[in-house]
Amino acid sequence: MFDPESLKKLAIEIVKKSIEAVFPDRAVKETLPKLNLDRVILVAVGKAAWRMAKAAYEVLGEKIRKGVVVTKYGHSEGLIDDFEIYEAGHPVPDENTIKATERVLELVDQLNENDTVLFLLSGGGSSLFELPAEGVSLEEIQKLTSALLKSGASIEEINTVRKHLSQVKGGRFAERVFPAKVVALVLSDVLGDRLDVIASGPAWPDNSTSEDALKVLERYGIEISESVKRAILRETPKHLSNVEIDLIGNVQKVCDEAKKLAKEKGFNAEIITTSLDCEAREAGRFIASIMKEVKFKDRPLKKPAALIFGGETVVHVKGNGIGGRNQELALSAAIALEGIEGVILCSAGTDGTDGPTDAAGGIVDGSTAKTLKAMGEDPYQYLENNDSYNALKKSGALLITGPTGTNVNDLIIGLIV
Ligand SMILES: Nc1ncnc2c1ncn2[C@@H]1O[C@H](COP(=O)(O)OP(=O)(O)OP(=O)(O)O)[C@@H](O)[C@H]1O
Ligand SMILES: O=C(O)[C@H](O)CO
Ligand SMILES: [Mg+2]
């Protein structure tokens, strides 16, 4: 029923359409009309801020008294009414981060209990929205952020430290907005969707403590000055009374859509996990083993089947090649699936950029590794050298979408016929 080309086309179509379901524009337009907002101050922060703000403007128009957008360099796409649009440093904050955040604080400081801040938040916000705590300099924040990013600490751990060194993170932004209200729409790029972790939770009570923050620094051997320590010891808010939050997109939603689309195409479809977080090459091998079980034993699903996985794997980069976690997962699966017909696996970053490459991920089948070998190349060597990009490029297995404007972790689908 499916030749390899049409199976490949179908997998790409399902992945692309599922990502469209988590475009922030769509979710903002669905959610805002239910919220009964009038005369708001709009503050949009994160990698998806521009698209979220634009969608809100299209729904609310003149009901927005003032708009400020803060996003990463290159992530805004022009004017939106008379909104102030700032681009700033990511993943490490810079002078523009501070400038934009000060402007937002200046605006919210003038509000009273009859006012509402519409806060549109997405991943990347930790670096784009920041005013260091009293006694801490931007340079110190930059040095600490760089050290934490390289340390192998998780995003929960990194943001635990960030929250305790900031005038806006860890609920302090909502505290500053009080007595006005915050209505927040949040797009999650954190597995588990913890609202106090996504973009360091500017409008959510902090679940972490000063002691947790100090422990993270100790665990990763990062030294701090006395003034930084004093700032960390000032505890973040644990209760907020002026906040209403809606989560408008996450990896679960992209997986749900993939399952629905696969079913519509006649596949037996199941979401296996939405929290895949192991080493990418292990994930690729394991997913390939499940695909083989379906192929040869018709379990846990009968063919034609679609296996769906969401999450964010990790790569400990040891070689000097180029690639990303989705490409590495795909290459590893390609090695395990070599020679098998009627199987295809696609692994994609929903933001459209996988690692420091122009690809969103990889799409591989039983012929991928064979093609490489026929060229005299050893796919395993490429995997060893973390050079998944070049291996997939040579075998025609890169998935290229360009930046999508959304960011909700990674989607992996395996089709077996
Ligand atoms: N050669 C490589 N092969 C495989 N993975 C790599 C390679 N070089 C870097 N990476 C991985 O790419 C990751 C960064 O990729 P990417 O920018 O897609 O991350 P991200 O989690 O989407 O970032 P953000 O959350 O800011 O959107 C790093 O964590 C690193 O593990
Ligand atoms: O900004 C951040 O902290 C990360 O993208 C997680 O949301
Ligand atoms: Mg990304």
Automatic annotation (TrEMBL):
Record's keyword terms, sorted: ATP-binding, Kinase, Nucleotide-binding, Transferase
Gene Ontology cellular component terms for the protein in this record: cytoplasm
Top-level enzyme category: transferase
Superkingdom of this protein's organism: Bacteria
Coiled-coil regions, chain positions: none
Reaction(s) the record says it catalyses: (R)-glycerate + ATP = (2R)-2-phosphoglycerate + ADP + H(+)
Domain MOFRL, first and last residues per copy: 306-410
Assembly and interaction partners: Homodimer.
Protein name: glycerate 2-kinase
Biological source species: Thermotoga petrophila (strain ATCC BAA-488 / DSM 13995 / JCM 10881 / RKU-1)
